[in-house]
Specification:
Blueprint (H helix, E strand, L loop, with lengths): L11 E6 L3 E10 L4 E11 L8 H21 L6 E6 L5 E16 L2 H8 L9 E3 L3 E7 L2 E3 L1 H4 L3 E15 H14 L4 E6 H13 L5 E6 L4 E7 L2 E8 L3 H10 L6 H12 L5 H25 L10 E4 L3 H10 L5 E3 L2 H4 L3 E3 L6 H10 L3
Parallel strand pairs: 1-4, 3-16, 4-10, 11-14, 14-15
Antiparallel strand pairs: 1-2, 2-3, 5-9, 6-9, 7-8, 7-9, 11-12, 12-13
Length: 363
């Protein structure tokens, strides 16, 4: 579990890693205007390979080199901490509910909570727990916040815990790559999904019933919150990049580059009728497959909220997701609201970096 204390007067490196892209940034907080500053951003796409992590490693090396070049140009060498946020498939999640009920009152201290969180889930010997996050708290049958119960005495405490784990091999690889470029750098690892969940609640002022979805390259992630508690969650083996691969497999395009070109035209409604029909058939097929997967792995025997929060890299991804027609009411988590608390140099906005930097500086 990470316990790093952020200094509002310091700069930090932020690295976001999902199934298709590594994004690096230098972030700080401007106390004068009370706004986060993303001073520099760089990114490198890669092709996900389930059999090895060579492509990921090369992408991280490229991003690290760009970050190093930036700090050399500015002659800035006071950055000593890197936040690394990971999505599926690199970070695995597990939901558990812990209950402590006693005949006599007991005090809920920070030390007590650390001990309680240590009982959540099972961790394999080659895994590292990134962040056991408390997602909901019930005291004596009433929903409360963690702050409301801390240092108070209760007779019954129920907490829902989201465990995020990552392989020790991946932690070692990423840490070595970063520290090889930045001597003395401390590296902290964080699951993106708990951050996403917390920021939805904070920014959109919603806590009870909603669906949260991260739609990126080879994998997506989806969860359902009912009455403030995560009822279900799963990684989904589908994303923008994997759909491009399906276009190639269906022989609509010869390679990924051509598939990307054709899909862009399709989303802009500029593709000829013959090709449009072929991609529409493929989309309908994927919709059936995804619906079956979601109903079986996520929506089974639970209440389905109407509000759906979607975060992704760009408008192309949004358009594709909307074409799938899985949900009616989609709230896209993007710059329309995130720009209220974060500024990007050269207006090079990124939804994931904005959300994660807001989490770092608690905005």
């Amino acid at each position: 579990m990470n316990s790093f204390e952020v200094n509002l007067n310091s700069r930090y490196f932020l690295i976001h890693i999902d199934s298709s892209r590594v994004i690096g940034a230098v972030v700080s907080f401007n106390s004068d205007i009370k706004k986060i500053q993303v001073e520099f951003k760089t990114s490198k796409s890669f092709v996900f390979d389930n059999s090895n992590i060579n492509n990921l490693q090369k992408a991280i090396e490229k991003v690290n080199s760009s970050l190093l070049e930036y700090v050399k140009i500015l002659d800035v060498y006071d950055i000593d901490y890197t936040f690394v946020f990971l999505t599926a498939p690199w970070a695995q999640k597990n939901i558990s509910t812990l209950v402590d009920e006693r005949p006599l009152e007991f005090e809920v201290t920070e030390k007590y909570l650390e001990h309680l969180l240590g009982q959540a889930g099972e961790v394999k010997k080659d895994e590292v727990v990134l962040s056991p996050d408390i997602t909901s708290v019930v005291v004596n049958g009433y929903d409360v916040t963690l702050g409301q119960v801390l240092n108070k005495e209760v007779t019954k405490l129920e907490v829902s815990v989201l465990d995020t784990t990552i392989s020790q091999k991946l932690v070692t690889m990423i840490s070595k790559l970063i520290k090889s470029q930045f001597v003395g750098m401390e590296v902290g690892f964080y699951g993106f999904l708990p951050v996403y969940l917390e920021q939805i609640k904070n920014i959109y002022n919603i806590s009870n019933d909603f669906i949260f979805l991260n739609f990126t390259g080879a994998f997506s992630e989806m969860g359902v919150v009912v009455d403030g508690t995560i009822e279900s969650m799963s990684a989904i083996p589908f994303g923008f990049d994997s759909f491009l691969e399906k276009i190639v497999v269906a022989k609509i395009a010869k390679n990924i580059s051509e598939a990307d070109y054709l899909l862009n035209l399709f989303l802009l409604e500029k593709l000829d009728k013959k090709m449009t029909k072929k991609i529409n058939i493929l989309i309908k097929k994927e919709k059936v497959s995804l619906n079956d997967f979601i109903k079986k792995n996520i929506f089974s025997n639970i209440f389905i909220p109407k509000n759906v929060f979607l975060i992704t890299h760009n408008s192309k991804n949004v358009f594709l997701f909307e074409r799938l027609g899985l949900f009616e009411d989609i709230i896209v988590v993007d710059r329309s609201l995130l720009r209220d608390f974060v500024d990007f140099d050269k207006d090079d906005f990124d939804n994931f970096i904005a959300l994660e930097s807001g989490y770092i500086f608690k905005q």
